[in-house]
Amino acid sequence: MASVRIFLPDNSVKTFDHQPTVLEVANRIGPRLAKDTLGAQLNGESDVVDLRTLLPDGSKIKIITIKDAESLQVIRHSAAHLMAQAVQELWPEVKVTIGPVIDAGFYYDFDSARPFTPDDLPKIEKKMQEILARNEDVVREDWPIDKAIETFEKMGERFKAELIRDLAAKGETTVGIYKQGLVWFDLCRGPHVQRMGQIKAVKVLSLAGSYWRGDEKNAQLQRVYATAFNDKKELDEHLKNLEEAKKRDHRKLGKELGLFYFHQLSPGGPFFAPKGALIYNELQSFIREKYREYQYQEVITPQIFDVDLFHQSGHYDNYRENMYFTKVDDRDFSFKPMNCPGHCLLYQAERKSYRELPWRVADFGRLHRYERSGVMHGLNRVRTFCQDDAHIFCRMDQLQAEISQFVTMLNDVYHTLGMDNYLIYLSTRPEKRMGSDEVWDQAEAALADALTALNLPFKINAGDGAFYGPKLDIMFVDAIKRPWQLGTLQCDFNLPRAFDLNYVGDDNKEHRPVMLHRAILGSLERFIGVYLEHTAGHLPLWLSPVQIELLTVTDRQLDFARELASKFNAHGLRVHIDERGEKLGYKIREAQLQKIPYMLILGDKELESKRISVRLSSGKVIESLDIETFTQDVLREINERRLTSFLQPTPTNTNQEAHNSSTI
RNA sequence: GCCCAUGUGGCUCAGGGGUAGAGCACACCCUUGGUAAGGGUGAGGUCGUGAGUUCGAGUCUCACCAUGGGCUCCA
């Protein structure tokens, strides 16, 4: 077969003498480039596409490029130039640095002696609008590199000059210059819009400090965040989502719903109040159920270990600054930051036969990691937490099946939780790594093949793997389209060697197992935070701290309410009676704000008929239900872990979209 | 860890050198009212911690702690 050529965005070409797999491409073209450009799917038939345009056909690689996303990027990048122009027209002394496109918009870093203030944002936006109205042409010129350096230097744009010098050092001889109108220009690779007026919808959002090249030793810069969209409608929708995100902030919901708290005497240490602990424990029970189903065994391992353990595992060398230490009896101990080394000790406790593999051990152990003070954020980043952590020790020939089982289990769990929208990333070998290329080839192929066999699309993060092995990261995309990394599966060639783990094969010889680290929810803490934001606090019944609130119209119904409550209680339902002498409307409002799924209204009518009237948190009211039937229906809803009320028609499931629109 | 901001009753916030305010929540009383806030009374705070300036400090200064937005980090 003819060679296959892959054209890269920087115009270089890589040639393969056979049909390359996507992994080969990723490993060949290098991490940085692949990360920016490769969205890929092994589907065994489709055209090989290159990274610039279309490409050689007959290959088994398909690279998904989303045209819309690309043009949006162009608009945003042009809008970044627009912002720079606006700022310099307002304050000519301000110097420009860089202004890249990011996930939901773009930013530009400025060097300004005077720090920007929030009042400056509307000014900048107004100036941007003025410039847009001029609708100037955007023209590209290619300048000899010396001329470019000289020009920017003369203007005092030392950051730009530095960037161009770097390009010169890489052997570039010309650089792209984009002119907006007659006067203003900037260094850029492009592409850009042809006329400024093509930018239809921009919004300046916020302000932050940053550093030149992200290094705190360098100059402090003023970063202005903004976003741009194809049209006003898209922009408005995005702004609405930002609003919505604020409303859904799990820190706010956690307080309002009485789920968890923080105290300054334990930074990064969440307190789960009774209601929050209920959610925590229900999630654990759910995962335990899945462990039984997927044949994991749960273990319990120590909290504190002699530091020697972490010397042996390598964590001390690589991870020390994130660990807590303590000295007892003149001996150095450490709180475990992860369960794996302990599991290795447990693996060694008994001699393993190949028949015992795969050996899957799960552990809800408490972990402590010292996080730098600036990185903690609600439940998303804490210093003490627990993961739905498990390790699988298996033979190399079992690898693919284990990966496959994990992905199936994850899909199962996410589906039950109403989280069908997720993306899978395969991170491949980094430059600094351990283990032979042969082993890496096998492991990467096992990951890719498992996903392909399950017909799950995935994207390659070339070079993003850990030094000890390749991994899958699962990005859950929530109800307002924000990605969160929750689940992960990591192959590890390091720990089995560090602990000299073996099993006896059918050849009566010792062999080294592969170790897999895996979690589905990630940390329970973080998961609860994410899930609260995904559901805006409207949890499914089985996770609701209070499932049924009993609201009496007058005190005459209190005995009836207590009778009902003990009946529900006996079935294991979580019930609460609002016994306060408030009016019904008042009690309803409170129950509503607490997002309690079922409100039972008890008045004289119900007392006489011995039937109940139910109000859902959606506001829907159903009158005169039979108590026994209601109880059974509610129990069924819980046991089946249903996402919507049995009284509410299930909306059609439109979840699968995400897989087909693997963006980026 | 770095930059900026913030820290006042359980919660949300006002006040800004002369001895602490509101709404909600809470307690009690009146009201027993049918699907998102009935009325009254009351209790509750050494204004994040420590030092300084001042006749006098929630209020000004400094340090520290915590939180928030970013940066960086997340073998």
Structural notes for this entry:
By secondary structure, the chain is an alpha+beta fold. The chain contains 21 helices and 33 strands. The strands form 9 sheets. Strands 15, 19, 20, 21, 22, 23, 24, 25 and 28 form a 9-stranded mixed beta sheet that branches. Strands 5, 6, 7, 11 and 12 form a 5-stranded antiparallel beta sheet that branches. Strands 30-29-31-32-33 form a 5-stranded mixed beta sheet, sandwiched between helices. Helix 1 packs across helix 2 and helix 13 packs across helix 14. It starts with a strand and ends with a helix. The structure holds one RNA strand of 75 nucleotides.
The helix tally amounts to: 21
Terminal Cα separation, in Å? 31 Å
| Spans of at least 5 consecutive residues with low confidence | 30-69, 652-664
What is the subunit organization of this protein?
Answer: single chain
Structural class: alpha+beta
Radius of gyration: 29 Å
Mean pLDDT: 83
Using DSSP, what is the number of strands?
Answer: 33
**Main sheet makeup:** 9 strands, mixed
Quick structural summary:
The chain is α+β, with helices and mostly antiparallel strands and 664 residues long. The protein has 21 helices and 33 strands.
Q: Descriptors for this entry?
A:
664 residues, alpha+beta, nine-stranded mixed β-sheet, five-stranded antiparallel β-sheet, 21 helices, 36% helix, 25% strand, globular, disordered C terminus, RNA-binding
